[in-house]
Amino acid sequence: MGTTEAARTPSDSGVLDGQPAGPMVPRLALGARLRGLREEQDISREAAGQAIRASRSKISRMEGGRHGFKLRDVADLLTLYGVTDAAERATLLTLAEQANTPAWWQYYNDVVPAWMQTYLGAEQAASLIRCFEVQRIPGLLQTPDYARASIRLAHPGACREEIDRRVTLRMTRQRILHRQPTTQLWTVIDEAALRRPVGGLGTMRAQLKQLIEICRLPQVTVQIMPFLVGGHAAEAGPVTIVRLPGGQLPDMVYIEQLATALYPDKPNEIECYWDVMNRLVVEAESPDETPTILHRILQET
């Protein structure tokens, strides 16, 4: 790696620690406010889109925090919604500027698909992350070797440099568990993920040992869903729920698929996934049992 590139690498620059939230919180806050203003005026998304020469879907993405903001578009929408107070307009336009500020992880845009960017921004701003994984150890808990093996499986045609960048990105994302204020992570891992030797037995044993150490962190809760439970609440697959700081923004549900991701954002949908997550932690083994289970699996690996 050259000197110039090394100087720009977020893992060495401290940018992540200095600006953990990035643009996601202002983006979501502005989107939620624009949605509220539109609904107060009983204006459809189609009509709002026409006012800024855009589609209904763009308005939907803006309101959901999944699209950047042009200052002119925000100004035109505020006029359409009848916002004439100079102070409120200035506040919302400032939010629009903050929402467009590049985040540290945008240095890795070449290996971050567009559909993942919203989640990545939310993850880095999160106060709490709840997730369930079936096939893999959660990315925030992976060792570098396990991450490399997992990434190679997902991107078999990638060159070594690309793999290296993806691994570095994943490792840098894990800083949210060690910054102040820290992000709380509560994960349920299916036993299958713990017994599937991704990267070979040596890599898997090292990963299991790291999980045992991670369980000692007060900000991380790990539960295991054993085979003996049989069916469980999340048979549809992995899911992640992100809670953002401040208590004013809706939780984000993230469902990653092979080449895209889903973001169910209706209140009843979010409530449904919270219900699933809460049922999972009841069905899984207690967090107190996790080190014992991991030691047993390690001995059998």
Q: Which labels suit this protein?
A:
301 residues, alpha/beta, 434 Repressor (Amino-terminal Domain), Endonuclease, Chain A, 2 domains, 6-stranded mixed sheet, 15 helices, 6 strands, 51% helix, disordered N terminus
Summarize the structure in short.
This protein has 301 residues and is α/β, with parallel strands linked by helices. The chain has 15 helices and six strands. It has two domains: 24-99, 434 Repressor (Amino-terminal Domain), CATH 1.10.260.40; 113-300, Endonuclease, Chain A.
Characterise this structure.
With 301 residues, the protein is of the alpha/beta class. It has two domains: 24-99, 434 Repressor (Amino-terminal Domain) (Orthogonal Bundle); 113-300, 2-Layer Sandwich (Endonuclease, Chain A), CATH 3.30.870. Helices cover 51% and strands 10% of the residues. The chain contains 15 helices and six strands. It has helices at 3-8, 10-13, 15-18, 24-40, 45-51, 56-63, 71-80, 86-99, 114-125, 144-154, 160-173, 191-195, 201-214, 267-283, 290-300, and strands spanning 128-133, 184-190, 220-225, 239-243, 252-256, 261-262. Strands 3-2-1-4-5-6 form a six-stranded mixed sheet, sandwiched between helices. Strand 5 (252-256) and strand 6 form a beta hairpin. Helix 10 crosses helix 11 (160-173). The longest helix is centred in the first third of the chain and has 17 residues, at 24-40. The radius of gyration is 21 Å and the shape is elongated. Mean pLDDT is 90; it is low at 1-20.
